[in-house]
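hey m, so remember when u said the tokens were messed up on ur end? i reran from scratch. heres the input so u can diff it against urs
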Amino acid sequence: MNPHAEEIATTLDARESRHVPALDGLRGLAVFMVVACHFSFFNHEGRGKLVYAVTTAWGGLWVGVDLFFVLSGFLITGILLQTLQRPDYFRGFYIRRSLRIFPLYYLVLFLLLMLTPLLHIRWNGSGPYLLVYLQNYIDFARLSFHTPHFPINLTHFWSLAVEEQFYLVWPLVVWKLRESKALFYVLISVVIICPIVRMLLVQRGFSPLRLYLWTPFRIDALCWGALAAYCVRNFTARRVELAGAIALFAGIAAVLLIAIKRHGFDEYDGMVAGFGYTSLGLLFSGVLVRLLRMKSWSASFFSVSPLRTLGKYSYGIYVYHWLLAPLFVWTGLICARATGSKGVGILVPLLMAFVVTVPLAMLSYRFYERPWLNLKDRWAPR
């Protein structure tokens, strides 16, 4: 076994008892990409090829959501495999998962419900879907509430629904198959079949938006992460390192080929929906394996404090940033009129999205989420 392989093996053993710092940083990068993409109001018309290329690449930062999926699949599947022998396997998983996700999510819904008479919110029939995490199956228009006073947008909650629906059944699959080869073959089958099904549906005129939102068509991203978690526990470190390198470079090549052919990487483009999502899963799973080498330059980069801080508070940042988007945009418009600069109107919302949302997420974590999270210790894996 070469030194790098030994390092991966040591990291995997250590990961049973503590976090890998670089993975926190990777989560921070994911939330940074999503927020930056949501506030990409750049106008590239008539500004040359370089500006067009930069703004097109910036618009492609939506891939941060897929990075979230892959990372979540990796971490959660690792926990499930680690706790298979515990008698409270199901209860422990679901309680811990609920304590992490539900308090903030339902607090937001509760506050909006209380503000409904004041803001004259019309829920457009979306309330029942939001309560049971099925919002990814309704039109985005029903998750955007154009109230007379303050427009509210909950469209970004679709990704939370995908994860929760997947993890409603995934623990049972892992429990039934254990760490057998059957689990490996199931994961391989999913990541192969999903893009084929999406491509066939695209050719038949199926909506790319639905392919982007509906859980059955997005589970391959989560399964790429789950596949990485399986491999690092059942294959030799040398094989894991080789597979990770192949996945990384194959994913980069596939994403670049699609981006060049389609002149961008639009999440609703047919080819991106067909094979682009899988290319991202391949790429990000390779990144995950790379970061397990804790002494590598990439692991050192993702272990820097700013990225790890974003990663720690990523859930709150994700929940709050799009809710407050109208406030940021209005401030940008006021600043643009005052200065006479369109650039100011573009940059101010982007900066405010971080300057306001990050401290808000930190306060939310400190005074509201952490008391709930402290209860997770009762069901912590031993």
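this time it looks ok to me. The longest strand covers residues 144-145. if urs says something different then somethings off w ur setup not the seq
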